[in-house]
Design a protein that fits this description.
Shape: elongated
CATH class of the largest domain: Alpha Beta
Number of helices: 20
CATH architecture of the largest domain: Alpha-Beta Complex
Number of domains: 3
CATH superfamily of the largest domain: 2-enoyl-CoA Hydratase, Chain A, domain 1
Length: 516
């Protein structure tokens, strides 16, 4: 065979490898509003940058009627390309081939591309659309999942890992997304669950739909598995590209710098009046964040889960920061079990990937209640405390209003080695609110007073003047400075610029034991 014939053969094989195996399956996929694996990859990556790997791989399973059906590439497309000019590695499960099921060959392909991502220090993105383990390959399928999970764990904190759930993801398959850093899920067409509705009905008698059990909204609002809800495949790829713009390639690099349009010395007078006169009146902490960061651009993570704590990415003077803030507009900004876990996971991600943390504090305490106590608020609240305490990235805190009790410490106080702590003049820093403190300290005087209400107000005013203000904390050095609200942006930028080359030595150890 001549060289020309070899080239012709190669071209024919390549055309066969990328051609749809089952056009009817492709049509069904499109009818459901879903794209196919290669279509999704083309939307995700810079145009023309995708380099496919292992397109000629075939499964080697025998029996059960599949030995004569061995399509090129099996049920996954793998390779690498670029997003905004930066390398990423990707695998996309192909539901049009064997329902995207995972067999030994599929696992081999996924493990190979994950290893390449680790070796080259670049993000790995998994596009999930699979019926699960390939029953015809038996235990080999389960072994394949185990190999993938192990690589997810080994890559954790080393390279960013992103899962995009765009179809079914059930049984053991759900654990890979659960280990990764961020999970995107498409509404209506994507479902995550350990056991499906039919099994649940058989075992427990409960009746539930696919969407109620494992849909995007269920996991974004109740379980916390899903970080971002997207309406369709195209939107998912746009959102992933946007998220990547905030992230470094790996744990040895810093996030990309974007020259800001916003002035570093800009002040916002709106912040001067955003705190209501009544201490029990809510306001929106997202408004505060958007007034401070570059161009008002704040990308919330876990927006629909535990809304009493907001977390997300933004930029200050062109540099990526991670923002953590209490949300007075939800549960008065108290910390509960879900908020503590949400915050701890985000803080640890930022610390692993060299992203400075800015904490905005307005916290009246932990959410009280028998349910919270018995469900482990002590253990879960300790996660957030642990995460902030172990973080070695630059950490700056701004107390806007309430900072009471243990929750004050948990929210990145000076005592847990925050680098810089600011307070607005409206800050109230104490063990508890003035009224509660007076009712305890002056119980006897109030009981004996002729006018208990007037005496109580006098004592409250006295307590606030003497204890419940930022100047007492500043006097002891627990607050580095009391600043005007409007100057928060320039003060944060200067503080983070000073901390740019921060180095913090930690004791030698294998790893800590966070209270999971």
């Amino acid at each position: 065979m001549s060289t020309e014939d070899h080239i012709k053969k190669l071209r024919v094989l390549r055309e066969d490898a990328v051609a749809p195996v089952n056009q009817r399956a492709v049509d069904r996929q499109h009818d459901l509003g879903k794209l196919c694996a290669r279509e999704r990859i083309d939307l995700l990556l810079d145009k023309g940058s995708f380099q496919e790997l292992d397109m000629f791989v075939k499964h080697h399973a025998l029996g059960f009627g599949i030995e004569d059906n061995r399509p090129f590439g099996d049920a996954v497309v793998t390779g690498y390309g670029k997003v905004d000019g930066r390398n990423v590695f990707v695998y996309a499960e192909d539901f049009t081939t064997y329902g995207g099921s995972l067999g030994a060959a599929v696992a081999d392909k996924i493990c190979k591309v994950m290893d390449l991502a680790m070796d080259n220090g670049a993000p790995i993105i998994g596009i999930k659309d699979s019926g699960g383990a390939r029953i015809q390959e038996g235990v080999a399928s389960l072994h394949g999942y185990g190999r993938i999970f192990e690589r997810n764990v080994r890559a954790s904190g080393v390279i960013p890992q992103i899962s995009i759930v765009m179809g079914p993801c059930a049984g053991g398959a759900v654990y890979s997304p659960a280990i990764t850093d961020f999970v995107f899920q498409v509404e209506e067409t994507a479902h995550l669950f350990i056991t499906g509705p039919e099994v649940i009905k058989t075992v427990t008698g409960e009746e539930v739909t696919m969407e109620e059990l494992g849909g995007a909204r269920a996991h974004a609002t109740r379980s916390g598995v899903t970080h971002f809800v997207v309406p369709d495949d195209r939107s998912a790829m746009e959102e992933v590209r946007y998220l990547l713009s905030f992230l470094p390639q790996n744990n040895m690099e810093v996030a990309p710098f974007f020259t800001p349009l916003d002035r570093p010395d800009r002040m916002d007078e709106m912040l001067t009046t955003i705190i209501p006169d009544s201490p029990n009146q809510p306001y929106d902490m997202v408004d505060v964040v958007q007034s401070i960061v570059d161009d008002g651009d704040f990308y919330q993570v876990h927006e629909h889960f535990a809304p009493n704590l907001i977390v997300g990415f933004a930029r200050l003077d062109g540099y990526t920061i991670g923002v953590v803030g209490n949300q007075p507009a939800a549960l008065a900004g108290t910390l509960d079990i879900d908020a503590s876990s949400k915050g701890a996971r985000f803080v640890r991600f930022c610390d692993a990937f060299n992203i400075p943390l800015v904490t905005l504090v307005d916290v009246p305490g932990f959410l009280p209640g028998v349910g919270q106590e018995h469900a482990g608020i002590i253990r879960h609240g300790a996660k957030l405390l642990y995460a902030f305490s172990e973080a070695t990235v630059p950490r700056v805190t701004v107390i806007t209003r309430k900072a009471y009790g243990g929750a004050f410490l948990v929210m990145n106080a000076r005592a847990v080695r925050a680098d810089i702590a600011f307070a607005w003049p409206t800050a109230e820093i104490a063990v508890m609110g003035a009224k509660g403190a007076v009712n305890i300290i002056h119980r006897k005087e109030l009981r004996e007073a002729d006018d208990a209400e007037a005496e109580g107000q006098r004592l409250v005013d006295d307590y606030e003047d003497r204890f419940n203000n930022p100047y007492v904390a500043a006097e002891r050095g627990y607050i580095d400075d009391v600043i005007e609200a409007r100057e928060t942006r320039p003060r944060l930028i200067r503080a983070l610029d000073m901390l740019r080359n921060k180095r913090e030595a930690t004791p030698p150890r294998k790893h800590g034991n966070i209270p999971l």
